[in-house]
Amino acid sequence: MRLRGCQFRTRKIAAICYLYRVATPKKTTKKKPVQRKKKPQPHKVYWRFLGVILVLILLSPFYYGYVLKTFSSAWQWVRDLSGNPMYHTYKNFEIAIPSQYHIHGIDVSYAQGKIDWQKVAKMREDSVRVNFAFIKASEGLLKVDPYFKRNWREAPKNGIVCGAYHFFRANKNGLWQARFFMQNVSIEKGDLPPVVDIETLDGASPEAMRKQLQAFLTYVQGKTKVKPLMYTTLSFYADNLAGFFNDYPLWIAHYDQADLHVSKQLNWWFWQHSDKARVNGIYHTVDFNAFKGDSTAFQQMLLR
Predict the structure, then answer these.
(1) What is the mean pLDDT of the chain?
(2) pLDDT tens sequence across 239-291
């Protein structure tokens, strides 16, 4: 009886649970439609990539360097059209060169580093090439240019006529400087005359500078049997040298001009007209010069 009662109750509970499940509506959850990822179209990927590259180029300093260089070249071309036809820019040398002169050259020192003189000699644009080179040998009483011996040896091997120069210190003994210069330079037949570079007073008075300079010139001339060239700037000459040393040939520095406008009585033969030329084989800017005369006058200038 007890077992039957339990069975009855169990059946009753099961029936109630069944009715509850049937009566209670099932919650239905709507499934979200699956969104398929769109594959990027090839042309859109291309334009995005191109856009990134364009942004990188615009942000690059090389781009602005190229733009500035192009603009500068174009502006120089316009200036050449409207300017002096005898003074126009030579693209390879990157400077304007006075074309009324036909013999050109450079001057170098340690500042130009190691020079490939073969490349220097081969460079040519129209009729302009490097015919000669003035090479720094010494300075003051103790300084020898570290590249002098190499430059003095290699430049003539490549057909370039050379001359040596000494950077003069006006507050030092001129005779001792001349002796020091001549100890470091072996000047031979076919070379340009030796040069003294005088462009600063170094605290000395003009009178004291001229006294020491005369001692230098006298000694070097006695050793080489030729008058040395004097290099100076146009302003330094006007302030400190005008009226003195008139017998000595001058090498004048005066930049970015179509011609050297000086008195006809001035005994100048070389003109340094630019300090920012580019020459193959030299990886720094370099001074560019013109010789006043023709090829015959140039040959007569050389040591015999």
Answers:
(1) 86
(2) 999 999 999 999 999 999 999 999 989 999 999 999 999 999 999 999 999 99
Two tokens, residue 123: 């460079």
Concerning whether 107 is annotated as a catalytic residue, the answer is yes
Question: From CA 203, how far away is CA 141, in angstroms rounded?
Answer: 16
- Distance between CA atoms of residues 99 and 282, nearest Å: 23
**247 is annotated as an active-site residue:** no
Helices (H), 24-97: 42-59, 61-82
Catalytic residue among 80, 199, 259, 275: 199
Contact residues for 68 (Cβ-Cβ < 8 A; gap 6+): none
Question: If DSSP codes are grouped into helix, strand and coil, which group holds residue 195?
Answer: strand
At the fourth CATH level, the homologous superfamily of domain 99-301 is: Glycosidases (3.20.20.80)
Six token digits for residue 292: 């006043």
What span, in angstroms and rounded, lies between the C-alpha atoms of 248 and 294?
19
pLDDT (tens digit, 9 = 90+) per residue, 39-94?
Answer: 556 666 667 777 777 777 667 665 555 555 555 555 445 454 446 777 889 999 99
pLDDT at 85: 76
Measured distance CA(278)–CA(281) in Å, rounded:
9
Length of the chain, in residues: 304
Question: Do the beta carbons of residue 158 and residue 128 sit within 8 Å?
Answer: no
Of the listed 107, 139, 145, 287, which one is catalytic? 107
Instruction: Please list the alpha-helical segments (H only) found in 137-253.
Output: 148-157, 174-184, 206-224, 234-236
The residue with tokens 């074309």 is 99
